[in-house]
Amino acid sequence: MRGGLFLRACRGEKTERPPVWLMRQAGRYLPEYRELRKGRTMLETLSDPETAAEVTIQPVRRFGFDAGILFSDLTVMFTPMGAPFDIKEGAGPVLDHPVRTQSDIDRLRLIEPEEDLAYTFETIQILQRSLSVPLIGFTGAPFTLACYLVEGRGSKDFKTVRAMMHADPRSWHRLMELLSENVLRYLTSQIKAGASAVQLFDSWVGVLSETTYRELLLPHMRHIFAGLEGLGAPVIHFGTGTPHLLGAMADAGGDVIGVDWRITLTEAAEKIGRRVPLQGNLDPTVLLGPPDKVRAEVSRIVNEGRNLSGHIFNLGHGIYPETPIENVEALVETIQGATLTV
Fold first, then answer.
1. Helix ranges, 194-264 (H)
2. Which of 155, 201, 224, 304 is most buried by its number of CB atoms within 10 A?
3. pLDDT tens track, the chain, 342 positions
4. Which DSSP state fits 11?
C-alpha cells in the first residue's frame, strides 16, 4: 500500500523511496480547487464536510501524494474558545478583539472538540471512507496561535506578543496553559476520529530566541507531546525560521521534526543531536522556476535524506498559489523514480 510508506518513514524505518506530501497541497495552486471555491469564503469551504473532504482528496488524486492533509485552518478553534475571527483573503486570520490582558484571557475557554468543531470530525469520517492514503490532521502550535490572538492578525515581527511574553509572564503562561490544553484536546480528538498522523504547525516561532523558547514555551509544548504519546499516531513538529531552535524543538517532542529551507537536512540532524526522522525541505520558490531546476533540487534533497533516520519529502513551508502544475508533477515524478537502499 502506497500509504504505508509515509507511516513507515515517520517511525524511522528505511523505505524504498522517501514518501512525499506538500504543505498546503490542498489549495489555491490547483484549478479544481479554485473552481470549487467560487462564491465561498475560506471558512464556508472548510466547515462544509463534503467540500472539505473533496479539497483534501484533490491533490492526492491528481499527483499521487503519499498522504493527504486535512483541509482546515490553524485557527479554527478560536471562535469556540471565545475569540471570534474571520479569514480574510490576502490577510489570513483577523480578530476584531485581540487578546492582550488577563481579563481578555479569562474570557477564553477550553473547547470540547467533537461538539465545538463537529464539521472537522464529519470531514474525517468522510475521508476514512474515501481517502486511499494516510490522513494528516493538524492545528497551530500555542505560540503561533497566540501570535494571531494577541496581534489580531499576521505581523512581520510579532512585537506585541513578544513584548507580552516578557512584560507580563503571568498572563503569558495562563494563555499558554489554555492554548496547549486546547491543542492537545483537538489533536487527540482528530487521532481518535481516524487521523493517521498529526502535525503541529509553529509557523512564527522562528522570531524567538532559543533562551525565550526554552523559558516561556518549552514546558507547554512538552505538555502537548506527552499527552499525545501512546495514541498510535506519529506527531510531526514543524516550524519556520527555526535553524537556531531545532535542538530545543526536539527537546520539546515530536516523532518527526519538520525542517524549513534555511538549513540542510544534514545540518539539522547535527543540531538535533539524536536520530529522529526529518521532514523537508525544498524551498517552495524553487517550484516557481524551470522544471529542470526542480528535478535537480529534489534529487539533491532525496540523496541527502538517504543518511537520515527516516525522511519524508516536503517543502520548507507551504506551496505558493502561483506554482505551475507541471513543476509539482516534476517533483513527484522525481521522487517516485528514486530508489533507496532498504
1. 210-216, 218-228, 246-252
2. 224
3. 345 899 999 999 989 999 999 999 999 999 999 999 999 999 999 999 999 999 999 999 999 999 999 999 999 999 999 999 888 877 788 888 999 999 999 999 999 999 999 999 999 999 999 999 999 999 999 999 999 999 988 878 899 999 999 999 999 999 999 999 999 999 999 999 999 999 999 999 999 999 999 999 999 999 999 999 999 999 999 999 999 999 999 999 999 999 999 999 999 999 998 789 999 999 999 999 999 999 999 999 999 999 898 999 999 999 999 999 999 999 999 999 876 544
4. T
Whole-model pTM? 0.95
Query: Strand 311-315 and strand 278-282: pairing?
Result: parallel
φ and ψ of 197, to 5 deg: -155, 165
CB 91, CB 152: distance < 8 Å: no
> What are the extents of the domains in the chain?
26-281
Q: Would you say how long the chain is, in residues?
A: 342
Show which residues are catalytic.
24, 28, 37, 73, 148
Fold that domain 26-281 belongs to in CATH: TIM Barrel (3.20.20)
- What are the CB-based long-range contacts (under 8 Å, 24+) for 13-16? 13/310, 14/310, 14/340, 14/341, 14/342, 15/310, 15/340, 15/342, 16/339, 16/340, 16/342
Helix, strand and coil in the chain, % to nearest 5: 50, 10, 35
Residues 236-257: b if buried by 16+ CB within 10 A, e if exposed: bbbbbbbeebbbbbbbbbbbbb
Q: How far is CA 6 from CA 14, 15, 39, 67, 97, in A?
A: 11, 9, 35, 7, 40
